[in-house]
């Protein structure tokens, strides 16, 4: 299924989604706790490593208060695996009709990735009103998003921009009404995870959440 109102509100209230590349599933729970200490409660575990699904299981068991989704979903089979492991939602880098159809059949909240007007229209026609906007900065950033969304603003479509976003430009994005939340790996980069630098990850989150609170009063 598409993102329902309850999940959309959770993500919108959180404002940030930590995009994670985990090489060792044993790091997952302590990482999730470090994110929570910094105020970040929604994560996207990317299927870029073999450890992602096991990491999801570990987080679901040990840190259930984290809203944990799976990203980089490229096939219906990956979507099924994410559902079986208890993912709260699925995210893809692009628009794939077969994956979208599978999400509906599996009843898993899902946000396809878009980068063009045609993809926005195709996703909306399928019932999607929460879309991943990727790769945001490479496409032209907030300026491009404003322009490409202009014909659809009245439809209530909301975007989760990812790609090139960080502490220096997140404020501008979050000030835009079409932006539901931001995703990014800068909160917990792969090198910091592998170094087990949990304190630095927590500090990154605290710094980002300070901006969120200033803008949205969270």
The main β sheet shows up as: 4 strands, parallel
> Which spans have pLDDT < 50 for at least 5 consecutive residues?
none
Which range does the strand content fall in? 5-15%
Structure summary, number of beta strands: 9
CATH architecture: Alpha-Beta Barrel
> What does the radius of gyration come to?
16 Å
H/E series, N to C? HEHEHEHEHEEHEHHEHEHH
What general outline do the C-alpha atoms trace? globular
Number of helices: 11
Let me know the CATH homologous superfamily. Aldolase class I
CATH class: Alpha Beta
CATH T-level fold name: TIM Barrel
**Ends apart, CA distance between termini:** 28 Å
- Oligomer description: single chain
Structural class: alpha/beta
Description:
The chain has 218 residues and is α/β, with parallel strands linked by helices. The chain has a single domain (5-216), classed as TIM Barrel (Alpha-Beta Barrel), CATH 3.20.20. Helix content is 47%, strand content 15%. The chain has helices at 5-14, 28-37, 52-62, 76-84, 97-106, 117-125, 136-139, 141-149, 170-174, 190-195, 198-216; strands at residues 16-20, 42-46, 67-71, 90-91, 110-111, 113-114, 130-133, 158-161, 182-184. The strands form three sheets. Strands 3-2-1-9 form a four-stranded parallel sheet. α2 (28-37) packs parallel to α11 (198-216) and α4 (76-84) packs parallel to α5 (97-106). The model has no long low-confidence stretch (mean pLDDT 96).
């Amino acid at each position: 299924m598409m993102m329902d109102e309850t999940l959309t509100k959770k993500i919108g209230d959180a404002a940030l989604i930590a995009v994670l590349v985990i090489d060792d599933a044993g790091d997952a729970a302590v990482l999730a706790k470090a994110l929570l200490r910094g105020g970040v409660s929604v994560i996207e575990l990317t299927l870029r490593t073999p450890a992602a699904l096991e990491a999801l299981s570990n987080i679901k068991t040990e840190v259930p208060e984290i809203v944990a989704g799976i990203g980089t979903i490229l096939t219906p089979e990956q979507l099924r695996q994410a559902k079986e492991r208890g993912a709260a939602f699925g995210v893809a880098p692009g628009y794939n009709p077969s994956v979208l159809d599978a999400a509906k059949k599996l009843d898993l909240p899902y946000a396809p990735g878009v980068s063009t007007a045609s993809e926005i229209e195709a996703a909306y026609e399928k019932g999607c009103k929460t879309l991943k906007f990727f790769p945001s900065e490479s496409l032209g950033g907030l300026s491009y998003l404003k322009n490409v969304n202009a014909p659809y603003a009245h439809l209530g479509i909301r975007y989760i921009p990812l790609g090139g976003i960080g502490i220096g430009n997140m404020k501008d994005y979050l000030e835009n009404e079409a932006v539901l939340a931001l995703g990014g790996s800068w909160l917990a980069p792969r090198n910091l995870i592998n170094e087990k630098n949990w304190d630095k990850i927590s500090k990154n989150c605290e710094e980002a959440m300070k901006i969120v609170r200033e803008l949205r009063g969270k």
